[in-house]
Design goal:
This protein has 229 residues and is an alpha+beta fold. Helix content is 49%, strand content 13%. The longest helix is centred in the N-terminal third of the chain and has 44 residues, at 3-46.
Amino acid sequence: MNHRSQQVQRERLLRALRRYLINGLLIWVPVLVTVLVVRFILELMDRTLLVLPKALRPDTLFGLHIPGFGAVLALLIVVLTGLLVTNFIGRALIAIWEDLLERIPFVRALYGGVKSFSETILSNSGKSFKQVLLVEYPRVGIWSIGFQTTDNLPEINNKLGAEYVCVFVPTTPNPTSGFIFMMPRTQVRTLNMTVDEAMKMIVTLGVVTPGVVHEAAAPRPVARPASGP
């Protein structure tokens, strides 16, 4: 076996190892990231057990640590809170609590902003982050994916003399940061992809794309035989 044949075999072996390595990473990286994120969330929610007396905590009652028990307690607290605020007494207590927070300068701005954002996102009647848009950014001819946050901009519409929408353009691969733009309605394109599909595309740097929608092709003209002389 000459030197050339050995080199070809080594290159084939390296290509095969590289392919196996990539295939293995494509399986294990999502699994490990998911496990780490879920573990972090469970550990964070387990801190809600600190609100219980030490004698009532699972570590004391059962003699061992039960991961995820704090998530059950957190879910129970959220449900009970939702049940409380649906009656008159609960709404009155919440009003007193919010009035107290409104008297604290920094907390007032932080709490008010987070509350408004939560009401907008979690409300079923809201339009925020329900529609995926295509916007021409950062320059003409280059398009980015964005999410419509609101189209209720009366002052901006009056000042600029046209209908504008507020668009959030996230960064990748971290979609929690980004930019907001006030763009004319006529300069945005509405996409059919869902918010989940757009978010997957952003987080994966465009590797995971939604399924291609095949539009009905226009009928091709039928060639007519050439007429004789």
